[in-house]
């Protein structure tokens, strides 16, 4: 089925050009693979918050965060269609591939943003809805339209957008922002540079071709590698804070410490990688491990919380 079916020559009643896009193309606009981890961290925020949300409302909250995150991805793809068309990694995305028009992606992104924020506010609470709206705005406008093409610190500041989801999940349950949700935010915020610059190192040519000032292109490989090590250390330190605060067990702290040491170890491998290395194997491994790392940290926090809440170990560690 296509959107064209009721329209002559691909024009809608108001003259906007429509493509022959299918549901799959619109689904791709939501950046589903990246957003799956975003939604997972939001779910963790919901689980880790004190108190509980009615299961139906919890499901609505997660759905709204998933739709809002996807909407911000569609808005990012609408604005970045010009550079996505040039980079090999992104050239097959729905807009540069000619499957979805820019207007469709923009309308889709705006509609889903309004829908997700509105439903979250009406069904759950307006603090979480406000945070969701701010996160969409931060990623689509502050990061995509402003920082990304302007400064090599784009992802350090812009990374805040990806760090908000657990705070949104937490606020959905408690109606508040607390120090514990700020710590979840900080783990992702400090993780993002190491996650992204590892990828940017082996995609330097792509970013160079479109003039996006990613750190490896502007500062060079050496300073980028140093920054990757610094942020990996900060991430590892931040991820054990819940144990020190007593909101997670010592068992979690030890697990997070091992994962963190591995994160720093991968970063050091990147640091020692020869300048100009064509294959960039350590950077590719670091990028892959970064995803596993965040997934494991949030899984461990949730498992620890559930074990402590239901007394499976018969008490605190
Ligand atoms: C400003 C912040 C971030 C930047 C610039 C960034 C950048 C990227 C890029 C360019 C990719 C490759 C995507 C592709 O080609 O499809 C990627 C992959 C990925 N990112 Fe990030 N990322 C950021 C934050 C996050 C956050 C906050 C999460 C989750 C919490 C995340 C999770 C992922 C995942 C799961 C993948 C792998 C997707 C796949 O398997 O194709 N990223 N990231
Ligand atoms: C709830 C909510 C709104 C969540 C949003 C979460 C968020 C901001 C995730 C960032 C993920 C991401 C792929 C960034 C890369 O953007 P890019 O444009 O630099 O990467 P690209 O070149 O692959 O498009």
From TrEMBL:
<keyword id="KW-0472">Membrane</keyword>
<dbReference type="GO" id="GO:0005886">
    <property type="term" value="C:plasma membrane"/>
</dbReference>
<feature type="transmembrane region" description="Helical">
    <location>
        <begin position="154"/>
        <end position="173"/>
    </location>
</feature>
<protein>
    <recommendedName>
        <fullName>Protoheme IX farnesyltransferase</fullName>
        <ecNumber>2.5.1.141</ecNumber>
    </recommendedName>
</protein>
<dbReference type="GO" id="GO:0048034">
    <property type="term" value="P:heme O biosynthetic process"/>
</dbReference>
<dbReference type="Pfam" id="PF01040">
    <property type="entry name" value="UbiA"/>
</dbReference>
<feature type="transmembrane region" description="Helical">
    <location>
        <begin position="126"/>
        <end position="147"/>
    </location>
</feature>
<dbReference type="InterPro" id="IPR044878">
    <property type="entry name" value="UbiA_sf"/>
</dbReference>
<keyword id="KW-0808">Transferase</keyword>
<comment type="pathway">
    <text>Porphyrin-containing compound metabolism; heme O biosynthesis; heme O from protoheme: step 1/1.</text>
</comment>
<keyword id="KW-0350">Heme biosynthesis</keyword>
<keyword id="KW-1133">Transmembrane helix</keyword>
<comment type="function">
    <text>Converts heme B (protoheme IX) to heme O by substitution of the vinyl group on carbon 2 of heme B porphyrin ring with a hydroxyethyl farnesyl side group.</text>
</comment>
<dbReference type="GO" id="GO:0008495">
    <property type="term" value="F:protoheme IX farnesyltransferase activity"/>
</dbReference>
<feature type="transmembrane region" description="Helical">
    <location>
        <begin position="288"/>
        <end position="307"/>
    </location>
</feature>
<feature type="transmembrane region" description="Helical">
    <location>
        <begin position="223"/>
        <end position="244"/>
    </location>
</feature>
<dbReference type="InterPro" id="IPR006369">
    <property type="entry name" value="Protohaem_IX_farnesylTrfase"/>
</dbReference>
<feature type="transmembrane region" description="Helical">
    <location>
        <begin position="179"/>
        <end position="202"/>
    </location>
</feature>
<dbReference type="InterPro" id="IPR030470">
    <property type="entry name" value="UbiA_prenylTrfase_CS"/>
</dbReference>
<feature type="transmembrane region" description="Helical">
    <location>
        <begin position="34"/>
        <end position="53"/>
    </location>
</feature>
<feature type="transmembrane region" description="Helical">
    <location>
        <begin position="250"/>
        <end position="268"/>
    </location>
</feature>
<keyword id="KW-0812">Transmembrane</keyword>
<dbReference type="InterPro" id="IPR000537">
    <property type="entry name" value="UbiA_prenyltransferase"/>
</dbReference>
<feature type="transmembrane region" description="Helical">
    <location>
        <begin position="59"/>
        <end position="79"/>
    </location>
</feature>
<feature type="transmembrane region" description="Helical">
    <location>
        <begin position="100"/>
        <end position="120"/>
    </location>
</feature>
<keyword id="KW-1003">Cell membrane</keyword>
<comment type="similarity">
    <text>Belongs to the UbiA prenyltransferase family. Protoheme IX farnesyltransferase subfamily.</text>
</comment>
């Amino acid at each position: 089925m296509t959107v064209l079916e009721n329209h002559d020559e691909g024009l809608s009643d108001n003259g906007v050009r429509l493509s022959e896009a299918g549901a799959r193309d619109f689904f791709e606009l939501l950046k589903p693979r990246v957003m799956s981890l975003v939604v997972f961290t939001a779910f963790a925020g919901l689980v880790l918050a004190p108190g509980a949300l009615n299961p139906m409302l919890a499901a609505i909250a997660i759905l709204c965060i998933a739709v809002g995150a996807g909407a911000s991805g569609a808005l990012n793809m609408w604005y970045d269609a010009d550079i996505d068309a040039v980079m090999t990694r992104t050239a097959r995305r729905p807009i540069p591939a000619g499957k979805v028009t820019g207007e469709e992606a923009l309308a889709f992104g705006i509609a889903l943003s309004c829908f997700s924020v509105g439903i979250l506010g009406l069904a759950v609470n307006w603090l979480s809805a406000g945070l969701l709206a701010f996160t969409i705005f931060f990623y689509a406008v502050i990061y995509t339209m402003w920082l990304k093409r302007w400064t090599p610190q784009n992802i350090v500041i812009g990374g805040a957008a990806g760090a908000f989801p657990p705070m949104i999940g937490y606020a959905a349950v408690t109606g508040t922002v607390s120090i514990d949700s700020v710590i979840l935010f900080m783990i992702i915020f400090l993780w993002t540079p190491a996650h992204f610059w590892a990828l940017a190192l082996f995609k330097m040519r792509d970013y160079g071709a479109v003039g996006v000032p990613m750190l490896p292109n502007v500062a060079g490989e050496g300073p980028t590698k140093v920054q990757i090590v610094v942020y990996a250390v900060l991430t590892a330190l931040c991820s054990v804070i819940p144990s020190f605060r007593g909101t997670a067990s010592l068992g979690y702290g030890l697990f997070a410490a091992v994962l963190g040491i591995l994160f720093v170890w991968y970063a050091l491998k990147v640091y020692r990688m020869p300048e100009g290395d064509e294959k960039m194997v350590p950077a590719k491994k670091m990028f892959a491990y970064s995803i596993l790392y965040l997934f494991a940290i949030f899984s461990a926090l949730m498992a620890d919380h559930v074990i402590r809440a239901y007394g499976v170990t018969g008490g605190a560690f």
